[in-house]
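DM from R.C. (forwarded with permission)

"hey, sorry to bug you on a friday — could you get me a structure for this? deadline for the figure draft is monday and I only need the backbone to look sensible"
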Amino acid sequence: MNNAVEPIRKPVTLHRLREMHAKGEKITMLTAYDATFARLVDEAGVDCILVGDSLGMLVQGHTSTVPVTLDEMVYHVRCVVRGNRTAWVVGDLPFGSYQDSREQAMRSSVALMQAGAHMIKLEGGGWTPETVHFLTERGVPVCAHLGLTPQSVHALGGYRIQGRDQAGAQTLRSHAKSLADAGAAMMVLELMPSAVARDVQTDNPGMMTIGIGAGQGTAGQVLVLHDMLHVTRGKLPRFVRNFMAEGGSVEDAIRRYVNAVKDGSFPDESIHGY
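My reply, with the result:
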């Protein structure tokens, strides 16, 4: 009788993620909001868990991420950390928790990191590099977020592809360069032409870009867990693949996602938009 215990991988660190990026190994990220799914995502081999403010819609039933509070994000980070053992955990700074000042952003980041997050994520460009620099100088790893930024969806006019024209593409590239120079180690690029996302990564080779609806030219990919399992109600983005249809269990679906990102068969370069 074989009683051997499957080895647990070493904890994923920022250094390890940078090594993967340097070698050209794709980085995998999925959302999780509770201990049970965090454990499944971790055991299936996902590199990074994003505790996203998307929980506002998927867990709380809101129509956007805007109502989510910092206290709620702290609660869900704590839940995820209890279930996770080895994945790198990124916690979202929710709307209104970092826009007021650099000091407010620092206090909010401290709350998430004391709850167990390894890195914080904030949205937007233009005004954010100063905040990113302030945080990284004080030991807070930062993941930026450009393109479609859900906290600003009303200002952007809905869920639309960003950077389609030359001016928009150049603005995204300029904002990304400023954020990378400010110290952002990672950047989510959401809903933009694949050529623009590829240019952002080329412009900033030391920064890890994580795409969602942004093609294959990024250092890694992220999806909302509920979307790729096809349990989200309502219309799903076109770039989402139903990995649950290909597997017999949630864990198998997640493993298929990891394998598809690693071998380059996901995402489909031609599919963008909602």
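R.C.: lifesaver. The CA atoms of residues 260 and 273 lie 20 Å apart.
me: no worries. The first strand starts at residue 27 and ends at 31.
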